[in-house]
Model the fold of this input.
Amino acid sequence: MTMQGTEAERALTEQVVSRFADTPDARLRTLMQSLVRHLHAYVREVEPTEAEWFAAIRFLTETGQMCDDVVRQEFILLSDTLGVSMLVDAINHRYASGATDTTVFGPFYIDGMPERAYGENMAFTPGTPALVQGRVMTTDGKPVANALLDVWQTADNGMYSGQDTAQPHGNLRGRYRTDAEGRYAIRTIVPVCYPIPTDGPVGRMLNATGRYPWRPAHLHFMITAADHSTLVTHLFNQNDPYLDSDAVFGVKPSLLVDYREHTADDAAAQQFGFEGGFSEARYDFVLERA
Ligand code: BEZ
Ligand code: FE
Done:
């Protein structure tokens, strides 16, 4: 912690910290006292003008005002673009267990999307036809039957259904269950790279700091199963040009997949009802025991 500022300024910090000394909940006391110390240290270090501090408050106000109840969560976007979401993720998944790596949840999840059968199509807008399949396993290599895979991705225009109200309800979203052998199969389109929304305060921050809004192509998963920890992750297309510059720092090497091309006469094309060629990615997820 820096020792900048006058004695009176430092005394103010200590006075505010001690005002929280009687917080009954010890964890809340720690959270508040540490927040005050770090926030004061930041202000002491950068010595904002009053106009700058007012601009900061206006930025946070607009961040809140930009949020809605469906798919716009500007505070998640802010946390993600400042790398805080991935730092919280790293702290909470520190111990290697053999489970699949986690990554950001992002602001575009919608609860209650349709349950879909094994291999059912979830793409109702054009794109490169794809099959994503694999298994859900325990850390000791046993299949997890009846796991629920909640899946979402953007359309080829880089927008999620809900965000882009022109897309049909539930487009490129769905909930799939694993069979008795832990298998899942999703018929969809190959994900594309897309920019995170730049029409709000976070976009202005990226623009003013010379940063780019692009995320590498990915498919989102939230996987839940009895007696196991919920897994929130993505599968990234392994040849994407933005893998090294993800706007939200979410890429992990273990989460890359290759979409391999199959021809229309392939047995899998018959099984899953593809009329032409399609691309296939395979991935086995490993869940940690709760
Ligand atoms: C997403 O992948 O949906 C996402 C994640 C973080 C910020 C914006 C979007
Ligand atoms: Fe996404």
